[in-house]
Specification:
Oligomer: homodimer
Distance between the termini of chain A: 30 Å
Number of strands of chain A: 3
Strand order of the largest sheet of chain A: 1-3-2
Number of helices of chain A: 9
Low-confidence stretches of chain A: 1-9
Structural class of chain A: mainly alpha
Order of helices and strands of chain A: HEHHEEHHHHHH
Chain lengths: 223, 223
DNA sequence: TCGGCGGGGATTGTTGACAATCTTGTCGCC
DNA sequence: GGCGACAAGATTGTCAACAATCCCCGCCGA
């Protein structure tokens, strides 16, 4: 989906694009906020040409929205859209998990188990920030094991569109207790090279994320 | 994934982008062929600025590949990539089919059945071109019923990257006989509002497309 | 006081020119 | 005759200026 971008790392255009993406993902620009070209020019010491190219790229990734003669805004993702995006993530990460189960090596399986152990420890100690990091590491490792470039790019793009919602998710009390056993099932299935089981476990996991997403809204959701 | 583009329909930029996309999809520019800006400027009577924007957009869709200082090429999709892309399509269209089964109205179910009847007739009469068109109509209708914007955009983007391979698929003798019953099962499951069944039927159908894709290669594949 | 109507400022859209880079063809040397 | 360096041409990368558009604000009349 996304084009390979390894070719031009370091150019002004790439720097502006990556810098702006980071800034948006970090929450420096809030959803709906206007991205004025002149400001970005100053911030990234780039020309308008470069800034516009960066904005167009990020529009392609779904992070910003451009309207003719009205400029660029940080895209606002409604709850409904967030659910849709997560539904797609559910099936694509399911595919990734299945493929990871088919291709996993012994060493990689051990790495997965190690993450699982760290996760249990983090939950037991109430270190939710660490747990959240491990969660990311787990999903990333599974994707690396699967080695599915197309699915990978899509998931990465979708994830970018959700950072804001994901962030709120991690604040939900009780989430780790819910997701820990799900993660363990995923790890176990991949370790046993059980493709179908891994896919199901991953889908159930993300399905529960969708439920959590919905519950966020009902208790005074995003701004 | 793709940004909404209804805002600027009719502008020079949109015309260049859509025109170029059509040209690539029509096979007017072959995979690997260079897209020289000067030529495109003349062809679409657009400025370089506009042409570059169009190229960048299509790069975001995965149709063209841009390399710094080396210009834009029509992206070449290897068999392996084609399989990957179709695998993702398999799971995402599965999601779409499941959702279509949940939301289908009586009228829409009748429309689906009608397409099924026409398909049977087309295969019986050996009208494979008509069958291929019906195939597209069927998938499009299912997507419309599902009303899943995010999944829709992704499938559309992926489909674009495969036109060349899809085209060859339709030439495979015996394909219609294989896929007709699969289509019938999809239609039946959606008609019965059987979400799980619809998803499975769709996935089996596209899984068989993947097999067909692989077999194409083994008998003297794409240039 | 409220609603329509310009005017001014800000912002984006577009163009053409110039600079940097790559590709190709040729020449000279080994 | 083959190989590498060089130069010319082609192509893309970047920029700054100009034109078009929109939005907000104050003004006028009902």
């Amino acid at each position: 989906m996304l084009p390979d971008r390894e070719k031009d790392r370091g150019t002004a255009a790439a720097q502006a694009r990556d810098g702006l993406r980071e800034a948006i993902l970090r929450g420096e620009y809030l959803p709906g906020e206007r991205l004025v070209e002149a400001q970005l020019i100053e911030r990234f010491s780039a020309s308008r040409f470069t800034v516009r190219a960066a904005l167009q790229d990020l529009a392609g990734e779904g992070l910003v929205q451009m309207e003719r003669n009205r400029g660029a805004h940080v895209r606002k993702v409604s709850l409904e859209e967030a659910v849709e995006i997560t539904e797609v993530r559910m099936v694509v990460e399911g595919l990734i998990a299945a493929r990871a189960a088919e291709r996993v090596t012994g060493e990689q399986a051990a790495e997965l188990s190690e993450i699982g152990r760290l996760m249990r420890a983090a939950v037991a100690d109430g270190e939710y920030r660490a747990y959240s990091d491990l969660n990311q590491r787990l999903h990333a490792l599974i994707r690396r094991i699967a080695g599915h470039g197309t699915a990978d790019r899509i998931v990465e793009t979708l994830r970018g569109q959700l950072v804001r919602h994901q962030f709120m998710l991690s604040l939900l009390p009780g989430r780790p207790q819910t997701s820990l056993p799900q993660h363990e099932r995923i790890i176990a299935a991949i370790g046993q090279r059980d493709a179908k089981g891994a896919e199901n476990a991953m889908r159930e996991h993300i399905a529960s994320v969708i439920e959590a997403l919905r519950s966020i809204d009902s208790l005074g959701g995003p701004a």
